[in-house]
Amino acid sequence: MKKEAIEAEFGAWVGIDWADEKHAVCLRPEGSEEIEYFELKQEPEAIVDWIHGLRSRFGGRKIAIALEQSRGALIYMLMNFDFLTFFPINPKTMKMYREALRSSGAKDDPSDAELLLDFLQTHRKHLRVWKPEEPQTRKLRMLVEGRRKLVNNSSSVCLRIEQLLKYYYPQALNWVGDLKSPLACDFLMKWPSLETVKKAKPVQLRKFYWKHNCRNNELIEQRISEVSRAIPLTEDEAIVSSSVLMLQALIPVIRELTAAIERFERQIQECFQEYPDRFLYESLPGAGAALQPRLAVAMGMDRDRFQSSVELQQFSGIAPVTVKSGKNSWVHWRWACPKFVRQSFHEFAGCSLVKSSWAKAYYDQMRAKNKGHHAALRAVAFKWQRIIFRCWKDGKPYDENQYLKVLQRRGSPFMSLVHLTEPASLSQSSWKGAGSIIAQLVQSSSGKQCGKIENAKTQSRKTT
User: Fold this and answer.
1) Which fold is adopted by the domain 3-132?
2) Euclidean distance between CA atoms 434 and 423, whole angstroms
3) pLDDT recorded at residue 417
């Protein structure tokens, strides 16, 4: 598109350097070289008045706005006005642009807004217009991202409790199991120190474990015996008393986070049940209750968002980056990408190993080539993204048998290994190997993304 046509497309060009309290704004009307500078408060009334002023001033013509965000309070408010066109610019891009034009390193909000405006006008053809997600996708995305943040917070608090117990009461770690469980929380609140639990009678401990669905008599008796023989790590009153107070402060946090995660999961499932493309992600082997909505959010419902699987692989960060200079070449993984999206595909690739025969065969082939565990998983995810893209583009669910026939027809080199890794006939050692792979992924996402597979693995632990 010629420069004159681009200029005529918009009534004005705007650069906004956003902040929590106020935004620096630069505006250049179409056909004018004069740039207007002003500040805009982060208040709904002030923003709406400014938008109405733009509409009235430029007769409802489109306004091009450059800003360093694709989500946040400002863009969530501005997205309600249809005559505004947004061009998000990566903050890293603007940092390098600033350094290229201002070697002194000087930085100020008004000047940054002017740089955004300049970048928008100069490099418009390299920028992509921001399109808001569908309401269902946007809601689902915020739910799954919120759940993940709570899971991370819960894991962080559990690590603090674990370190605290090792500091003065390490035996409790063997008596309570998972620190997020009701058994662990109730045990530590009831007996927050070795001195208190040693005062409990064996019948009290038996009753406690039975009440919390621990019915393994051998394990219960073993724990009771350990309690009677245990000696304190330290008897320093200052250490014990302060540690008990900290423990009693952290346990309610774990309870609330666990309850909040469950509420989020119920909302996610309710929202996902109404998601139009749900059938696509339910057909993916290994994608359980947590990963199905995460993959749905990563893809969205706009079929024009990705024109090829390569765009998806590059956007998600699964595709590697090659850097060449002369005779030197370096391949590394992609750093500039949405980390949560990359993690979703990475975890799904690991979970698919126990459900998809070709995925396990390809993973083994990568490991045989001395690839690391995570590098091999990224290779599996790379192939999965090509499949998911095609299913998503065509609106057809995945069929494992059909895909295996295609691989066989094309003479895929790893098809000879598929029969050895058939999920239905996995040996005990293979199950253990697959379990170790999943355990690395489950630890960071509460173990629910692997669906029925992880539930089956934990069924045998209920007695503990």
Assistant:
1) Nucleotidyltransferase; domain 5 (3.30.420)
2) 10
3) 72
